[in-house]
Amino acid sequence: MKGSKGSLYDDLKRRILTMELDPDEDLDEVALSERYGLSRTPVRETFRRLEGEGYIEIRANRGARVVPMNHSTLRHFFLVAPMIYAAIGRLAVQNYKPSQLSDLKDTQERFRKASTSSDALSMVLENNRFHEIIGEMSGNAYLQPSLGRLLIDHARIGHTFFRPRNADMRKRLQIAVEHHDGFITAIDAHQEDAVVDLVFEHWELSRENMEMFIAPQGLKADALVGGS
Fold this sequence. Notes:
It is built from 10 helices and 3 strands.
């Protein structure tokens, strides 16, 4: 596959978010150079960019790997995700630009279409982009990097949410689509409290599915948060 540095960057992000590349998986610099028709320098530059955004880790003398997920990272995720999402949502209401709201609506339509056609990979990516845009709306240089890092693990932990296996999971997915519509309406109407309320509803909606992925033998996320 001949490509460009931009293609390599986009493809690696997509493959990490959709779990095509597993957490902790090594990235072969030589193979990627050959696949994309790039020299080693732009591949390394792409690695450094992805490292800065939280997608990969670069280890001295050991190369790059997809950022891992372990007990510690999951505990931190469940502790802080709702708080950061809520703060981002409130700031988005205060600072959004009309062009960003238009982008949010377009992304939601793509997400809705993917949910109708049961296109799990597109749902993962469009959902991620939807929440990225809300982060961009916040205009906060401190919170946006934290949101970006959270969204990476949210996509990976919650990927089963977009592959519903029964009627209840399909119903929950439809509610998620409706929540997105609610975010758009509340942001457009400058209703901060409504956005924050939706953040927590949206979080709880996907939480059980994420727990199923990270704790298949019955360990609840509360144990990850509150355990010693």
